[in-house]
Hints:
5 helices; 6-stranded mixed β-sheet; single chain
Amino acid sequence: MPERRFWLMKSEPGVYSYDDLLKEEERIAEWDGVRNYTARNTMRDDMQVGDGVLFYHSNSKPNAVVGYAIVVKAGYPDFTAWDPNSDHHDPRSAPDNPIWYMVDIRAENKFHKPVTLQQIKSHDHLQDMVLVKNSRLSVQPVTNRQWKIILTLGMSV
DNA sequence: GCCAACGTTGGC
DNA sequence: GCCAACGTTGGC
């Protein structure tokens, strides 16, 4: 049984928000459309069922982790890549040779208090998060300690 | 709206 | 394989 790991995934709330995830059937969504190799590798190789996912709103007011989710399906080919009608169509990818991968996540809890990027940047034990160091990576690892701190901050009443 | 940082593409 | 040019992300 592999150790449970933790991740952070970003989304622009105007495109897809945590509330959108809550409205999905069984609160589960396919995390399709990621077209970055580092993020792809993480989803394809590292994310496992049961792992925790911080859900972060980027390009938002405020930018913040707004809730968390759980991985319910490990990496598998992102079939939107070979759908010509998809916004994320990539003609280089094909069913017999997929380039892009995704996972499924299920919403677990919306934070009572979103944990803002400002908070994270000024917190002694959070300011070395990948989120701060490389703001462009849309799927990124989170340490056990970072996870615990952010969940405590977000779920406190 | 601006722009810095980053990732990708493509010519050589 | 290098690197300039370009496109995108995302904070401010």
